[in-house]
């Protein structure tokens, strides 16, 4: 595997066998396509290629295998773990031109798309038929299907619909040797041994390159109600969630964020809070259906029982979008208004309350006086922990201290049976901590899979596991 200058005969073969616009080495393009949203690592790819078909991907990957040239598969580059970063001369394999979406199969409720199709574009493609691919998150306007699948993306509707892997029927994958695999097609049932498509879902491009997928669709939801509640603290967020689980409605999202997150959003996006008084935490709840009278009675009881201190219900689509903007603008606003250290952790929902209580003690001892911005998908046990750099602390010192302090948090995550990465993956950022979540036997099995499927180590090297 080469991390130095690209071999001359490799570049000659590309020039002879692929279209003239297939490869670029323009410095601006290398910077753009060599990184993802983490902005932690300096990109240094050797080149970027833009295939249009699976056949071109397969020929290119075979060429990389022949010349031992490392490659980094790249989609919308919205990841937050460094999984799409090329920093050692690798060739970035961008799937941005592979955006074809086939007609929706109205009998099977499926659609086949290329890996570069944008998530929101798939939603728009299916909506006229009353169908949707229910994978949804703030980055849906730029994230791509291939990246969603490669990272088993989560998002804001997991409490209702589950993770990406539950909405993928079939995959087309190019192996490290350039072989094209068709895995499961459009079959709902296929009981013929190990489900190979699941090896590639969530593997972050380290085992193969996903080029097409057959997606499972569901009916568009009916009337959705969106509420924003003010509560004093994280414990109150969890008390309200416990109550909402028993309420006469179907939860499709249960999101929370702290007052510090809201302040950053208001500073960056100039969005207005619907409440006159500030509060420690806010809960965005989206629901489907339910008897209107029963829901109204439940809402009234929240104030009577002291579960919320304030609340509002969106009156129409525009107001619902405004409330969602408060939540979905957080990641962008945190990055735009400061330097931060991110963590994306998950716990069994039943353990959240005990975990959060102990987490406060860690913040007090490890980050005294630092600004902590918490938000997340409480409904599926996912917390996003963001530590903002104090103005008086040098950037290098900040990251060194924050990373060292992660061990205390991950010890607590392990104690409560959680995961160090809920939905952002491992990439470069989390691989040193993977053993907090994975047992030694699991780690060895992951290495065995990598060696078996990518013996030359050319696929997204250095991500998840070191060689």
Automatic annotation (TrEMBL):
BP term (GO), one: respiratory electron transport chain
Family to which this protein belongs: Belongs to the FAD-binding oxidoreductase/transferase type 4 family.
Keyword Oxidoreductase: yes
Domain of life: Bacteria
Pfam families on file: FAD-oxidase_C (PF02913), FAD_binding_4 (PF01565)
Cofactor: FAD
Organism whose genome encodes this protein: Corallococcus exiguus
Keyword Acetylation: no
SUPFAM superfamilies referenced in this protein's UniProt entry, alphabetically: FAD-binding/transporter-associated domain-like, FAD-linked oxidases, C-terminal domain
Name assigned to this protein: FAD-binding protein
Single GO term (MF): FAD binding
Entries under Gene3D superfamilies matching the protein: 3.30.465.10, 3.30.70.2190, 3.30.70.2740, Uridine Diphospho-n-acetylenolpyruvylglucosamine Reductase, domain 2, Vanillyl-alcohol Oxidase, Chain A, domain 4
Keywords: FAD, Flavoprotein, Oxidoreductase
Residue ranges of every copy of the FAD-binding PCMH-type domain listed in the record: 41-220
InterPro entries on file: FAD-bd_oxidored_4_C, FAD-bd_PCMH, FAD-bd_PCMH-like_sf, FAD-bd_PCMH_sub1, FAD-bd_PCMH_sub2, FAD-linked_Oxase-like_C, FAD-oxidored/transferase_4, Oxid_FAD_bind_N
């Amino acid at each position: 595997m080469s991390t130095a200058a690209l071999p001359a005969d490799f570049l000659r073969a590309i020039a002879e066998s692929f279209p003239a616009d297939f490869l670029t080495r323009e410095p601006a393009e290398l910077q753009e396509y060599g990184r993802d949203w983490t902005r932690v690592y300096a990109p240094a790819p050797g080149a970027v290629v833009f295939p249009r078909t699976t056949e071109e991907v397969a020929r290119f990957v075979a060429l990389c295998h022949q010349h031992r040239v490392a490659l980094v598969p790249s989609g919308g580059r919205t990841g937050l773990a460094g999984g799409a970063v090329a920093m050692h001369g690798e060739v970035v394999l961008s799937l941005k031109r592979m955006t074809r979406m086939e007609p929706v199969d109205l009998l099977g409720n499926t659609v086949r798309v290329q890996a570069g199709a944008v998530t929101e574009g798939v939603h728009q493609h299916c909506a006229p038929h009353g169908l949707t691919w229910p994978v949804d998150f703030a980055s849906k306007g730029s994230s791509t299907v291939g990246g969603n699948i490669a990272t088993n993306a989560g998002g804001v509707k997991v409490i209702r619909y589950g993770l990406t892997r539950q909405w993928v029927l079939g995959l087309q994958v190019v192996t490290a040797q350039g072989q094209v695999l068709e895995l499961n097609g459009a079959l709902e049932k296929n009981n013929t041994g190990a489900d190979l498509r699941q090896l590639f879902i969530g593997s972050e491009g380290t085992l193969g390159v996903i080029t097409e997928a057959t997606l499972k669709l569901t009916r568009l939801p009916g009337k959705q109600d969106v509420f924003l509640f003010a509560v004093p603290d994280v414990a109150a967020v969890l008390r309200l969630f416990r109550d909402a689980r028993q309420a006469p409605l179907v939860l499709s999202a249960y999101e929370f964020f702290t007052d510090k997150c809201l302040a950053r959003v208001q500073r960056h996006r100039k969005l207005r809070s619907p409440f006159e008084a500030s509060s420690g935490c806010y809960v965005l709840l989206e629901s489907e259906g339910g008897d209107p009278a029963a829901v109204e009675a439940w809402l009234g009881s929240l104030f009577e029982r002291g579960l919320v201190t304030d609340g509002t219900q969106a009156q129409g689509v525009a107001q619902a979008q405004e409330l969602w903007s408060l939540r979905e603008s957080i990641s962008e606003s945190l990055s735009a208004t400061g330097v931060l250290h991110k963590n994306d952790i998950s716990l069994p929902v039943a353990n959240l309350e005990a975990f959060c209580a102990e987490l406060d003690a860690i913040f007090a001892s490890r980050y005294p006086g630092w600004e902590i911005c918490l938000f997340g998908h409480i409904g599926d046990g996912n917390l996003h922990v963001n530590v903002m750099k104090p103005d008086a602390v040098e950037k290098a010192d900040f990251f060194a201290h924050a990373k060292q302090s992660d061990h205390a948090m991950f010890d607590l995550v392990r104690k409560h049976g959680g995961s160090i990465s809920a939905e952002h993956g491992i990439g470069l950022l989390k691989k040193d901590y993977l053993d907090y979540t994975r047992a030694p036997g699991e780690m060895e099995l992951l290495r065995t899979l990598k060696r078996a499927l990518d013996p030359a180590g050319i696929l997204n090297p250095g991500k998840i596991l070191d060689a």
